[in-house]
Input
Amino acid sequence: MHNTTTVRFFGLAFGGEAVGREQDGPHRGRIVFAFGAAPGDLARILLVRVHKGHAFGTLVEILEPGDRVSPFCPAFGRCGGCQWQHIPLHIQHREKAELVRRGFRGLLADAQEVVVTCGESVSYRSRVRLALRLGGNNPGCGFRGLSNRDVVTVDGCPVAVPALSQGIADLTQQLRTLTQVSASGTAVLMAGDTGLTASIRAPLAPGLASQLAHNLAMRPGWVGACVDDGRSVCVAGDPAVEWVSHEAGMPWVLTVDADGFAQANRQITKTIIEDLLAALEPSAVSKTSVLELFCGAGTFTLPLLSRFSSVMALEGSAKAVERLRANSRRAGMDHLVSAVVDLSTPAQLVPYLNKRPETIVLDPPREGAQPLMTSLGQSGASTIVYISCDHTTAARDIRILAACGYGVATLKVYDMFPHTSHCETLIVLRKRVAFETST
Output
């Protein structure tokens, strides 16, 4: 077969592909990446992009299967939401640990283990971002394709919590009634303890946005929806959901807007909160002052407020800060200091770093917080806790902190998104003098 080669796969890559080496021909030993293969597979691969020293290909035939399982979703292989359903969970966890270990090479002590904390592997997602296709032959909602940007429409999702999976079906049903329009859009669906809500962006004709929002809000299990048609935003019901949590030894309610950020896996988020508080527990008796960056609506802020007398929370979204303040007032936590700050600009942090916080906690977006790292490294904080959904950008940023005198005291890895290459990390850094004294 033209431009095919035989590859023995030995691992998984951060992009979700399996990685292996060519077994024959003039390029024997060359690294090849391909979706759909698994560690241990011997497979025939069609090469589609060739670079110096490595190539990308598509799976043609499995000649000798490695350790693999049957995918549980009928859309697997077309939908880009999951890449690893054909790989046993213990291998997923092993490979994620190895990816993080390699990314943090030189930052960890030799004795530091990298262990992946896991939870449920199906029905775990309480928030999804969907692509919309309106009109045409197959209107609906779904995820971008694994190998292209086409929308793979679905009527539910087995990794979503059942209420959210039903919400996807409800949205698809409503979109199929909008025959007067042909367009694309996006939607964020969120399931909370109070029900379902959605934030939808699509260029709908006048009147259709209101119709869509109200039809969704009237569905069983829904509390509301908002639809932005490019001219105005139509809101029906409540565009926010509530989560009741019991971390930090007390019940508290987190209200999050559908178009705001919230962690998608509540079970793992609960564990991260517990680990965060445990990491800071030894300093709690000293009434440590905490500076939190990228606080959002308060996923970590509320637990921190329950333990510390001084918490300053900064966030770039004014709407999220408004929601955070409402959440803290509802919890009776009136010692919150919060502000809307452009966290892409180090100069904006200066007034807050000048207050000399003893602990800094940050949970930046996937691209990390590289512009802030030197300022944080020079802040004098005794402890910095970095929570990340991308271990590659986290490792990059932490190397800057290491150059400023911080050492990694704790690294925890969480399988926030089973069956994908993504994982969450919590890294506790101590100022090296204090760190070395305590070890």
Summary: The chain has a mean pLDDT of 93. The chain has ten helices and 22 strands. The domain at 91-120+265-438 is CATH 3.40.50.150 (Rossmann fold).
